[in-house]
Write a structure and sequence with these properties.
heterodimer, A: six-stranded mixed β-sheet, three-stranded antiparallel β-sheet, 9 helices, B: alpha/beta
Chain lengths: 381, 357
């Protein structure tokens, strides 16, 4: 293989720049899911991460108008971010209602179904003859918010994380980390990692080795900080030494968001946006989507719809309504059949009567004929 | 009846008072630490986290009483704290309420049966629970479904005092808003909590002021800590964060001191009286006048059965109808055939006749 010298090259080295130009023009799309109980600072975190109000804070005046529907909803918030003329179409998937009820059994079903549905939808679109305009809502990463109990993961957390880890890039996050002292936090993180390992929960990992030393070191420090402890705040506060930072102001001090000694927010932001966003997108497409596709193709033919089990309690009401309508319609049809039956019976009776009449007529004619024949034959003799 | 009774009787002071307190809340809200902070000793051992392989197993709720002797300003108090580890930790928590309610009613039943004995035991130990501290998670939003359910179900049997656990995760502004919303929720759902009752006309000004102040602090913001740290040369009980130290005994930081004083000095007599004169009497009346059976079938279950039966009936009748239809059609066809053959015969006979003629 002939090699070209630097300076006398034919321009192959310019390929990355071409890719850069294409990528800059095309922009990128990121779909992120945030899951966890309410009151753990999910909305605040999203707004802090993107330094803008992606989602409005909860409106408490409406809480008494809530119906007693105990469901987990899927809420999709879309935003378009632009920085230095590079566009990112951001979709944030929120899961209000998860973990909030007394009985949370199967409350993870809507979330799992949503993730699978996105893979399914992409797969179907890919199999169409025309596949230019694909709408891709596959979830690239899922941040699971853990309550800062200081003890261990709850059974509900373990159930959900097990199911999420096999379908999406799962990043566990310790919410409201300013509740715990550094020693407590350290013990809690160790504990969570032990449980994750023992329960075989698959969390997001990325290749640590990189070309330059600095990146490798940074990658290792990011991995070591998992699960990330975060503090979220969109307010500017004044610290005791005069700096204005994003943080939370207590009577005993200010907890800063971007201070690495206080929380791992910076590391997480680096992971999500600065360094590994593309890896998140690619691993979703290459690993998780391929796994889903393989599993589906082993059991289904191309073009066949997916077998769905309706377990959403919300739909039970609709099922009831449909069933009532069905019985109503059956009743109507039955009445129609009855009247039709009556008609047929009447028709049959009438025909029978006609038949009888014809019969008697025929008999009369036959009798006449016979008599005539009898009359004839003696004549012949 | 509601003004606090200062222990002046020497005999009582020597014998001491007995008080039972139950602490309920999800794990990780600082219940155990609070109990140890309240008694200034490690009464409840720290939770031993089990094997990571067993972390997905849901243990049920357990009820564990601990008794400790306290000395408050020279007054001996025999304090029994009932801890409830495992509450709210399972995926389905419906069962927890019944467990706690069963325990409370069990104590009432014991007293009831003891009272009705011919020869009563003088040394009978009164295990009725006088107050329940319910730990609310510091979400910053409002009460969750499990909070409302528990308080609704237990308030007919016990004095409930709602408190906010780990309140050092809320800034002062957030804490004030949260307290307001929690009290709004409690009023909206009409939950009768213990709110330091006073009578503006009957009681003296001091009592009114004291009780209204305590009422305004509801739900109490609590922080628990057993370790001591040094702040400005003083040794205090507190939590050391990188950004500052939260002091447990500082009324600016949390309401621990006020709650402790209310529970162990000023209001425990009131709580005991309400438990005995009101809650226990209600229970007694209800139990003694309860009729045996309460048969209430699940109506909706019946309806379901009904509609399913009807569906089956309809299906059968549909089948029958189809059969009848087919039969009628067949008979029609047969008759038509007959008619036709007879017609043919007729025609041939007619033809014959014409021929003959």
């Amino acid at each position: 293989m002939a090699s070209t010298q630097a300076g006398a090259g034919i321009g192959i080295a310019n390929l990355p720049n071409q890719r850069h130009a294409i990528a800059s023009k095309k922009g990128s799309a990121l779909t992120m899911m945030i899951a966890g109980e309410s009151g753990l600072g999910k909305t605040t975190f999203i707004n802090t991460l993107f330094t803008t109000t992606i989602k409005a804070p909860k409106n408490h005046k409406r809480r008494f108008n809530k119906t007693t529907e105990k469901t987990v909803e899927i809420e999709i918030i879309r935003a378009e971010l632009e920085e230095k003329q590079f566009n990112v179409k951001l979709s944030v998937i929120d899961t209000p209602g998860f973990g909030d009820y007394t009985n949370n059994r199967d409350s993870w079903m809507p979330i799992i179904d949503f993730i699978d549905d996105q893979h399914e939808s992409y797969m179907r679109q890919d199999q169409q003859p025309k596949r230019q305009e694909l709408s891709d809502m596959r979830v690239h990463c899922c941040l699971y918010f853990i309550r800062p109990t200081g003890h261990t993961l709850k059974p509900l957390d373990i159930e959900v994380m097990k199911r999420l880890g096999t379908r999406v890039n799962l990043i566990p996050v310790i919410a409201k980390a300013d509740t715990m002292t550094p020693t407590d936090l350290h013990k809690f993180k160790k504990r969570i990692l032990e449980v994750i390992a023992a329960q075989n929960i698959q969390c997001y990992t990325f290749p640590l080795e990189s070309d330059d030393e600095a990146s490798t070191k940074r990658n290792m420090s990011i991995m070591a900080a998992m699960p990330f402890s975060i503090i979220g705040s969109t307010d500017d506060v004044l610290t005791h030494d005069g700096r204005t930072v994003k943080g939370r102001q207590y009577s005993w001090g200010v907890a800063e968001v971007e201070n690495e000694d206080h929380c791992d927010f910076k590391k997480l932001r680096q992971l999500l946006i600065r360094t590994h966003m593309l890896d998140l997108i690619h691993s979703t497409e290459e690993t998780h989507y391929e796994n889903y596709r393989r599993a589906q193709m082993e059991t289904r033919k191309i073009g066949e719809p997916k077998v769905k089990t309706v377990t959403n309690p919300k739909w039970k009401e609709e099922e009831e309504a449909l069933r009532k309508r069905f019985t109503e319609q059956v009743r109507l049809e039955e009445n129609r059949f009855r009247s039709w039956e009556q008609q047929l019976i009447a028709e049959r009776d009438r025909l029978n009567k006609d038949l009888e009449a014809e019969h008697s007529h025929i008999k009369a004619l036959e009798a006449e004929l016979e008599s005539m024949q009898l009359g004839l034959s003696p004549k012949r003799k | 009846m509601s003004h606090p009774r200062r222990p002046g009787n020497r005999k009582n002071v020597k014998k001491g008072f007995q008080f039972t307190l139950m602490v309920v809340g999800a794990s990780g809200l600082g219940r155990t630490t609070f109990i140890n902070t309240l008694c200034d000793a490690e009464v409840v051992p720290k939770r031993e986290c089990d094997e990571p392989e067993m972390a997905h197993i849901e243990e049920g709720i357990k009820i564990k009483p601990y008794t400790v002797e306290l000395d408050e300003d020279g007054v001996k108090i025999s304090l029994t704290v009932v801890d409830t580890p495992g509450f709210g930790d399972m995926i389905d928590n419906e069962y927890c309420f019944q467990e706690i309610l069963g325990y409370l009613e069990q104590q009432y039943d014991d007293i009831l049966s003891e009272e009705s004995r011919i020869k009563r035991n003088r040394r009978f130990r009164d295990n009725r629970v006088h107050a329940l501290l319910y730990f609310i998670a510091p979400t910053g939003h409002s009460l969750r479904e499990i909070d409302i359910e528990l308080m609704k179900r237990l308030s007919p049997r016990i004095n409930i005092i709602p408190v906010i656990g780990k309140s050092d995760s809320l800034t002062p502004g957030e804490l004030a808003d949260f307290k307001k919303r929690v009290m709004e929720d409690i009023a909206h759902h009409k939950i009768p909590i213990y709110n330091f009752p006073y009578d503006p006309e009957e009681d003296d000004d001091e009592t009114v002021e004291e009780n209204s102040e305590l009422r305004s602090l509801l739900p109490f913001a609590l922080i628990g800590c057993e370790e001591e740290v040094t702040v400005n040369g003083r040794k205090v009980r507190g939590r050391q964060y990188p950004w500052g130290v939260v002091e447990v005994d500082n009324p600016q930081h949390c309401d621990f001191v006020k709650l402790r004083y209310a529970l162990l000095s000023s209001h425990f007599q009131d709580l005991k009286e309400i438990t005995h004169d009101y809650l226990y009497e209600n229970y007694r009346t209800e139990k003694l006048s309860r009729s045996t059976d309460s048969a209430s079938d699940n109506d909706s279950g019946e309806e379901d059965e009904h509609s399913r039966l009807k569906e089956e009936q309809f299906k059968k009748e549909e089948g029958k109808l189809k059969e009848i239809e087919d039969r009628v059609q067949r008979e029609l066809k047969e008759k038509q055939q007959e008619l036709w053959t007879k017609e043919q015969q007729l025609m041939s006979l007619e033809a014959n006749q014409v021929q003959v003629q």
